[in-house]
Fold this sequence. Notes:
334 residues; alpha/beta; Arc Repressor Mutant, subunit A; 3-stranded antiparallel beta sheet; 15 helices; 15% strand
Amino acid sequence: MSEDVEQTRWVTVMSALASTSGLSARAGMKTAALEQRERAARVGARLLLLRDDDYPAQLRAVPSPPPFLLVRGEMREEDALALAIVGSRHATPYGVQAAERLASELAARGVTIVSGFARGIDTAAHRGALAAGGRTIAVLGSGVDIVYPPENRKLVSCVIERGALVSQFPMGAAALAGHFPVRNRTIAGLALGTIVVEAAERSGALITAGYAGELGREVFAVPGPITSETSRGTNGLIQDGATLVQGWEDVVAELSPVWRRCLKEPVTGEAPAPAPEGDEARVLGLVGGQPVHIDRVIELSGVASGRVAALLLTLELKGWVRQLPGQRYARRDS
């Protein structure tokens, strides 16, 4: 692609944003476009326009899709077989475990897991997909060069390696409150259906489910205790007709035959992961059946905080531990 053509593509982006960016002069748009290109190049982000062949087909099919996407990582044709898993930022251990399990079981069967990279259920969904060796797409409410929430910084490279970070906002855009409802529609548009795992009665997850319904996509909900505030929204969705989910089978049963034929059998009979050694073993030894906070692990292990965070992520992806809300960890088999 020639330099002039590439620059024109970026000016198209700035033109689409002109109404909110305050750019009215063509020269201003060109300057802003050049700055956007440079910022994208620094983090390896790629620009996708709606007219591009590799713009996601599921998203292109919705009314008024985003005119452009910025992508870190790789989006593939196989990502058309995608399901969104969303839910509360204030997830309970039950919700985290349910989201991880569903994401893992679906990803192991070739389903790309889409979520919003937020705290709680979203993060659990991404981690569950990665732990199964599957693909995941994180749709951000900020620019793809902005990590939010900051505690997910270590997760960024894992998502890029096994999927993509995606945004419909320009490079450098902050995670503003007004961005998230817009981002939620994109999550719903990328997926064949949306699974809600824990959501209060008024929450972004329910907004995503609403968009899924409006777009003609499936809506699923994981039931929760009637005493839990974070399950009022999901239980309400079930009352309103959403498909009740107790396992991955309930989800794939609602997919059309053409998509069910795209599923694959999980790989079985693999050799178990080797037992952790060195610092990995030291950190794992401090994580038991009862959740322990990362600060306590750092204190007892004598290992630097950044390395402990990296080791815990590695142990999680290998299936030894699971992360719970509040940066607490427990053994996976507990």
